[in-house]
Amino acid sequence: MRFGAFSRIAMHFGDFTNTAAAQRNMVATQQRFRKYGEHCPICEGHAGLKQGRGERCAGYMSDDSEYVYCTREEFAGALERNEKTQPATFCHKMHGPCNCGTQHGPDLKIVPPPSMKKSDPGRIVNEYNYYDERGRVAYQSVRYEPKDFKQRQPDGKGGWSWTMKGVTLVPYRLPELLKAAPDATIYIVEGEKDADRLAHAGLVATCNVGGAGKWDESYNRYFKGRRVVLLPDNDKAGREHAQKVTQALHDIAKDVRTVELPGLPDKGDVSDWFEGKGTQEELETLCAPRKRTFTYASEVKEEPVDWLWKRRIARGCFTLLVGDPGLGKSTIIANIIAANTTGRGLPDNNEMKQGGVILMSPEDSMSMTVVPRLRAAGANLKKVLLLNEVEDFDSDGQPYMRPVSFPEDAHILAEAIKDVGATLAIIDPVLSMLNGKIDAHKDHAVRQALTQVTRVADQHKCALLGVVHLNKGQNANALYRSSSSIAFIAMARVGLFVVPDPDSDEGGGVLVNHKNNLAPTALSLRYSFKQTDDEIGYITWEGESPYSDSELLNQNTPTNNKRSEQADDLVAILKQHS
Q1: Which domains, and CATH codes, for the chain?
Q2: Residue among 70, 62, 66 at smallest CA distance from 40
């Protein structure tokens, strides 16, 4: 017998409809609820909705449209879960009485209020209206006992639709927020009960629907130019929620701060604080605008520059290494890393204090280029932390790897510095690690991005070495020849430039210290390239270059700038008579 004929006979046998034939997984996959227009007639959900909001339905309809297999338990009533279907579902009868407690039908669209449990529908104890900017009810959050929350919106017919589909999210008590004086403090709490408690005391308070972790960016515009105080619940979720809201409003509100109320019990909120004899006067004192403090020169304790490499790389400061491709910038970096991780000397330094290094070099292969180059330079690989990617988690809590990006990942750099005990962090090249939304040609954008990174380096006394390319301009001032924005070299306390060596016939180079805000410029150092037996390149230092910075940085060809023998003789005579 065909399933459609069987289901029509089964309609006449009451409970048998929901417990026997309808529980069999005899469905056509083309009738699954994949999008709006093909949604579940029981819960109005479909598989195309976002996960984690309690709105999705991954169910389907029988091929004869007599039964609906809905995955939402809150609409199931007394129906039993069918574990044999994929996924598990609750089978609703579309014609006549259904064991969920509601009669469904093509002309009948009755959606039952959501329930806490199959055996206990719960009891509504409060209804919180969310009003839009025109004072109309946009939606309502319903509280049940035992404690649970569900949302619904007006259906336009004097009733409610138990869905948030199509709703524009607004903060709770929005009309009061919009009417508040410009200098009023806006308190953001986690729940409507707490917001009402503060409002009844004459304060301006709000929250977002759904509680901790449910802040939506659509709320942000209502807090532009406002002074905001967050009062989180005393638990991990509350603190994480406060941090998320703070980040969301950081560049929007005039001031955002989090106040953790003293003496709160575990998981306690501001209502608990008042019940524990906290007073409104005490709350307003705790949340009063902070008085700005200023620093006077007399309060600053002087300290010497802590050089990692004398006159070239300082701890807590930003050094920029600039040069054309192919001149060995990355090979020089490998040499510096080797010195730092082993404690061996560099020119002008008899020895270095051994420390960890963080290397961010996303353009080169770790296995085929970076690590072989470090090995050839003699680095201690156990002290080199490679930070190109970082583990993160998607909305379902599943881990995945994503590229590190600045400035938003500056805190990850701080964690890495602590992990390896770094005295040096290298970004090669800097542009590859900046957020793609940042215009690298705009000084203000670059300064904002780099400031957070350099602040981390300063706080942890870690030297920061960035790499950029030299542009093709012929400006006499080499500071204007670093790529993209002038902000890169402007923010660097020391500027090192890599150029060809005029006296080398084998492609050697010179490291020129053309900018130094911390000390007199260092000597220009020559270097040459060598290879290991397995043809991995490394450099050796060859002493001081006899040329001036301007000669080295503005040379056209190596031969054009070589001194003639006559010029050398003239210099020798002048030195004898000086």
Answers
A1: 3-93 (no CATH), 123-161 (no CATH), 174-286 (3.40.1360.10), 307-572 (3.40.50.300)
A2: 70
- State the virtual CA torsion across 202, 208, 213, 217 in degrees, nearest 10: -120
Residue pLDDT, tens place only, 42-96 = 888 888 777 777 778 888 888 777 888 999 888 888 888 888 888 889 998 887 7
Q: Strand pairing of 356-360 and 494-500?
A: unpaired
Amino acid at 274: F
Torsion angle (degrees, nearest 10) of CA 207, 210, 214, 215: -20
Residue 319 to residue 321: CA distance in whole angstroms: 7
Select from 126, 100, 95, 120 the least CA-distant residue to 112. Answer: 100
pTM over 0.70: no
d(C-alpha 217, C-alpha 283), whole Å: 28
The answer to whether the CB of 162 falls within 8 A of the CB of 172 is no
Q: Over the Cα atoms of the chain, what is R_g?
A: 34
User: What is the DSSP code (8-state) at residue 564?
Assistant: P
Which residue from 209, 213, 197 is spatially nearest to 245, judged by alpha carbons?
A: 213
Helix (H, G, I), strand (E, B) or coil at 300: coil
